[in-house]
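Handoff note, outgoing to incoming analyst
You'll be picking up this chain. Sequence as last confirmed:
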Amino acid sequence: MAAKTKLTEDLIGSFFRLLAKNGGIVTDAAKDLNISRTALYVKRLTDSEFKERWDEAVDLGVDVIEDEAKRRALTGTEEPVYYQGDIVGYIWKKSDYCLGLVLKAHRPKYKEKHEISGKIEGEGFGNTTNIFTFGGEFSRELRKIDTDSLAQFAMALRNRIRETEESS
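Most recent structure output, in case you need it:
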């Protein structure tokens, strides 16, 4: 196995350019440049400027993925048509799945919303309902409850679910 290349400013710049192009896949970028993934992750942990540049490159890479999802949703991809095992032509096929993902990402009315509500009784709880709501980008709306009480509620909810699963 060949020795890994030492991190230089030029290599670091190339690494970030590859991350931005390939959708943020660290393993592929490191392999293409013969850089140790471990060395990259250690530098990320110890160098805040490096971490910031890494995060920016990954964001650009995610933009590439989003553009591809939009393209597959609206333009589609060319797929072969077979007849008796032979390719007889091609069709363009759009992706309903990608279309749904794009809509969920950009239009609040298509985002999945989850609400968990309940009534907590006991010392320190009062009678609190509508504890929190998850929606969109998992925004949380906490009402009349502190984090310790929320953790206790989550534990009680988990135990209740287990009891329900075991009894059925």
